[in-house]
Amino acid sequence: MRGLEGLNALWETLRSILPLTAILAFFQIVILRKPIENLKEFGVGFLLSVFGLHFFLKGVSMSLFPLGDSVGNNLVVLERKWVIVVVAFIIGYFGTLVEPALKALALEVEEISIGAIPHRVLIHAVAIGFGTGMGIGIFKILNGVSYIKIIVPLLVLIIGLSFFAPEEFVSIAMDSASATTGPVNIPLNMALAIGLAKVVESADPLLSGFGIVGLTSIGAMISVLTLGILTKI
C-alpha cells in the first residue's frame, strides 16, 4: 500500500515537470528549429529533477512541516515576546541562506554585474530582510496587530527607497522578493506561523497564520533597496 502511494506521489511530480519540459522542447525543436545539445545529458538531468523534486517534497512534508508546526506551538513557553521575535528572525535568516532559487538569482546577478554585486553579499542582505519580515510577522501574531497597520507603512517605505536606490537594485529587489519564497521558506515559515497562531489565545489561525510570507518578501525588498543605497553612497 505504501509502495503504491509512493508511486502515485512520484507520478504527480512527473506530471508537474513534464508539461513545462515538453513546451520548452517544442519551442526549441519546432519553433526555433534548434537541436537539444547533449541529448543524453538532458535526459539524465530530467530524471534527476523528477526524483530530486519528489524526494525533496517528501522530505519537507516529513521534517520541516511537522518541525515548524511544533516549534510554533511551543514558542509561547518563551515568556518574553522579544525573544520569540528574535528566534523568528534567526529561523528566517538561516532558512533564506539555503533557498536554492535565491542562490541561482544571486549567481546570475554577480555574473551580469561582472562581480560588482557579489552573490554572497546579496544573499545575506536578502536573508536579513527576510528574517526581519519574519520577526515582524510573528510580532503581529503575538500582539494582534492588523495587517493594514503594518503593510501600508512598509509599502510607503519601499516606494521611498525606490527613488534613492540605483535602478538596477529596484529590479533585483523585486526578483529577490520572489526568489525567497521557495520550497524551503514557505513550508517552514507558514508552519511556524500557523503553529504559533494556534496557541495564542488572541489569534485566529486562519486570519493570523497566513500572510507572513508576504511580509518576509517585503522585508527582502527593503533590505536589497537599502543595500543599493549603501553601495551608491
TrEMBL record:
Q: What are the protein's UniProt keywords?
A: Membrane, Transmembrane, Transmembrane helix
Provide an example Pfam family for this protein.
DUF1538
InterPro entries linked: UmpAB
Where do the TM regions start and end? 14-32, 44-62, 82-102, 122-141, 147-165, 206-230
Give the protein name, as stated in the record. Answer: DUF1538 domain-containing protein
What is the organism of origin for this protein?
[Clostridium] ultunense Esp
